[in-house]
Here is the input.
Amino acid sequence: MNATIVGAGVAGLTLGYLLATKGIEVQILEKEQKIGGLARSFHYDNWSIDIGPHRFHTDDIEVENFIKSIMGDDLITIPRTSKVFFCGKHFNWPLELKSIIKLPPSLLLSSFWDLMVRPKIQDDSFESYVNNKYGKTLTNSFFREYTEKFLKLNLKECHRHWAETGINRATIDKNVRSSSITDLLFGLLRNKKVNTKFLYPKNGTIDIYSKRLAEEICNKGGTVETGINFEKSVIKNNEVKCLIDHNGREYEIENLFWSGASYDLERLLGGDKVGLDFCSTLICNILVEGYPIIPAQWEYFGSREVIFSRVSTNISFNPCLAKEGYFGICAEVVCYENDYIWKEGEKLLNTIIQNLINTNIVRNFNSVMDVHFEKIRNTYPIYRLDYVQKLEKYESKIAQFKNVLAFGRSGAFWYNNMDHSIRASIDLANLIDPGNHNHNIAGLPVKGIFRGDF
Here is the structure.
């Protein structure tokens, strides 16, 4: 049994490693020039930084044990430090009682009134959902501005799943309940300190995980190639027989596991486009002299007056990522591929730095020592109001093919975290028996897309 995995991100590399361990011949083909997917890292002169705040955190002991088996002793445990910039102030996130009392009294009174008077859910829109769960005050003062800035979508055009999933992803810790304003209130009144712990590489950036998986895959006889952009496919009897890249090189296919962008798979399979789409991110990586004024691993910025939506600080994860007396910042500006920000993002440098100064993240322009812009495709699947129907069509389209399975964040159009990708790849690998080809003709255990039990 042979497995071709498209996409060398966390999901693809984890699956590739587990299949190679079973004796399956694995080839992994990545569109970008570097492996790691959305968990890539960037290495510059004397400093390194990840794409946003990546770290290992899971409540799943099997996932944790797998991470430790790959990373060995190269892990440190770090406490969580995350913040949100709201009403011109930096608050710990998740919110604490001592932070809440610093908010404007009118906002607090309106929010408490919303506990008693909240509109019913009228439809599947983001707006209807958060109005009901958090009240109109929080919807209009925080969720609306942040989400419309982030997705460039009106809340009426966005599906409620984006709210449900996004809030959970931002909270991270399952012990912190935040699914409604009532949960938030009782959590604040308990005034219990959040004590979330993360795992992070001891000797480098988060991409060490991906590099170790790739190395082990190659040690087991597999291959990992980068810079492979597929343009054509050869399909016979509802099976993908061959993929052809931009250089005309042909890759024979027995079983195709796709964790690349869903629209690329659609294009290769032919037929009408379903229309699922992603937003992308322009990141501005900045080396700053000194030490962070507001120490935090990451911080959310909802105000439209600030161009970036999130900032992460490298030495808050591991001090070894910059030399003594310096720290690196990753400022994320969400955009769409080929829009103005994507094409002309470097022209925004002065605005980005001025916003960092205004929010007290950077002291002044003179403290900026180094700047690098990076373009990251397909960072978030966009859950438009009709995305559920489109996702069903996408899954049905793939299910027509006997030897194709989509998975991972991009392939399954799934807003997930690293631990979800790892868990799903473990579950998928457990379903695959290299000696049993009776699941269907091509030997795949499921059809369409695979997310696991989430």
